[in-house]
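re: that chain from earlier
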Amino acid sequence: MIQFIKNNSAISWVMGFQLFRLLLLPFMGLMPQDAYYYLYGQNLSLSYFDHPGMIGYILRAFTEVFGSTVFVVKFADFVITSLTILSFYKLSGYFLSKKRQEIAIILLVSTLFISILSFNSTPDVPLLLFWTLSIIALYKAIFEEKKWFFIVAGIAMGLAFNSKYTALLLQIGLIGFILISNRYRKLIISPWLWLGIITSVIITFPVWYWNYQNEFASFAFQSSERTNSISKFEISPTNFLGAIGHQLFLLLPVLFITFILFTFKYIKRVFTRFKFPSSKTLFLLAFFIPTFIGFLSITPIYWVKLNWLMPSYISGIVLAAMFFSKKMIKTQLVFSIVFHLLFAVQILFYFIPIKSDDTWVGWKELATKTEELQKKHSNTFIFSNDNYKTSACLNFFMKDKVYAQNIIGLPALHFDYLGDNLTTLKGKNAIFLDSDKRFKNSNKLNKEREKLKLYFSKVIEIEPIIIDINGKPSRKFWVYHCENYQPKN
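^ sequence. v structure.
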């Protein structure tokens, strides 16, 4: 830590980028992901339907101490991501000279993926921290021969898995490295190694037990649908180009291209010269290749989300720093500063309307208008049917409970597991909200909602809710008054 502070050039860039992000936090509105994982924390459980619960526990801890505000939720993400940056600096020092270590930390803090993690609550926020800590502990256990660090690594790997299932690639990378490495292959029979892996499994017990209690619903959700989609093997250039575009955005072009080049270099060396890199480089590659190449390889046949490759960035940036020149650093920083300034302008002034519910504007205003509408229609409950976004955001801002699409018999992610007894709503009236993502006018939808009629005796469309941003209509929600709710058994 002292060495980090003394490194004036690196600390200047780190502090500059982090101060920029911190100053921007108060201007960031609530994202649907923030609201959904806040809902996790307000409904504590061993695990949850679509992800393990670490991000929910973190948000619960911060909001219990500092209050349930949008800023506190964002601040939690910022603090955890700052800890990831510090951990990364420690990790990079094991592999790089001081000069290259400085390059590595500048590369990390200049990326847009760090900004996204600092502003938006997702399971990747704690995943990246525990992923980094896991690699640090495994380095100490293997290269410094401090065997008890296998136990520390097991704890960190378990906590990473309790953040997101992608963390399973840590154990895969570890075993892969040991089997490939001539020098360290003997560790495969080390009791310390297996004690560490057993420790990681023990730490993940809450996730497994929740799944056991709920017919392995989360594991099935995360695997079966995606496996079926991949097995169809339908080539989609759009998916591939979209994934590449996301990576160019998250890492910025210079760093992403460097990833591709050094990956090709190491793979070519193995297959043409049958020569593996040094043990430390191989170690870094073991936690990079399976995630980076693994997910990129399926992009032509499956839509890979932009955050799936993020864990690979940790060891990937350490490797990239070995190849970066001063000119490349300058180019990377130019891209970074331009993109971050554009990002800040969009946050502050919202010049470009976002045709999606994945936005930080309008949710508080929607809650205010919904409460006003609810007063006009007494004895009503509120629900929506966009999986989680509108319902989660309204739950964050409104006093009364807001329901999701399980009201009308549709799967509703973790809303299905909150323990709500929907029969208590029988006979009540409701207000149904539906976001018009491609908002073009202020007209009603004027369309029958057959699904609603299956659960309510009368459904009447009323005037839509229009949200103004910067004095201009920017978001629209269709609204229906539904009478006499009849839940299905």
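The chain has 22 helices and five strands.
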